[in-house]
Design a protein that fits this description.
- The chain is α+β, with helices and mostly antiparallel strands.
- Helix content is about 25%, strand content about 15%.
- The chain has helices spanning about 1-30, 35-40, 70-75, 145-150, 155-160, and strands spanning about 60, 80-85, 95-100, 120, 135-140.
- It starts with a helix and ends in a 13-residue tail after the last helix.
């Protein structure tokens, strides 16, 4: 019987603790010194600070990729599409397209681990807004080199411009 009362007490204390946390955050919304998100971070002009281990939109180094398809095989939702051609006067492949469909991607970073040459990794970009689903398809082989390599941020303007280019910007490490 004593164990039953201990369980009831534990249950009631857990519920009270949860309600306390909920009330504390609810009452914070009525704080007169509270600022809006855009007042606090100046969002469009300055990037929002993110944690060091934040898993944002990918950064991809096209010059070191060997077209091994390990990242595409490791992806649980099949959102990575790699186009490649065999090199005529050598061994290996030439990348013709490296596309990630961000309407499917769940940012799990499982594609980063199996890469033998570390050419794909998670970046700190958190916003890639677009008005159509076509804007969610990012072909890193057609992006400007500074954006594809991660030296510049992945932005909607660069993605829209990459859909106009007819030839890849860079053919890969074997070219």
């Amino acid at each position: 019987m004593g164990q039953w009362f201990a369980n009831v007490k534990s249950t009631v204390m857990t519920v009270i603790n949860g309600l306390y946390v909920t009330m504390r955050y609810w009452l914070r919304t009525y704080d007169p010194d509270r600022r809006t998100f855009t007042e606090q971070f100046e969002y469009p002009e300055l990037p929002v600070p993110v944690a060091a281990r934040y898993r944002g939109f990918h950064r991809f180094d096209l010059t070191t990729c060997i077209s091994c398809d390990q990242c595409a095989k490791a992806c649980p939702v099949d959102c990575i599409y790699i186009g490649k051609e065999r090199v005529e006067n050598g061994k290996g492949f030439k990348i013709t397209g490296f596309t990630i469909d961000y309407s499917k991607c769940m940012f799990c970073a499982l594609c980063v681990e199996p890469c033998p040459v570390d050419c794909i990794f998670m970046g700190a970009t958190h916003d890639l807004s677009c008005y159509s689903r076509d804007g969610c398809l990012v072909d890193f082989a057609r992006l400007p080199v500074d954006v594809a390599w991660g030296r510049s941020t992945l932005n909607p303007t660069a993605v829209a411009g990459s859909k106009v280019i007819t030839q890849p910007v860079h053919g890969g490490p074997n070219q």
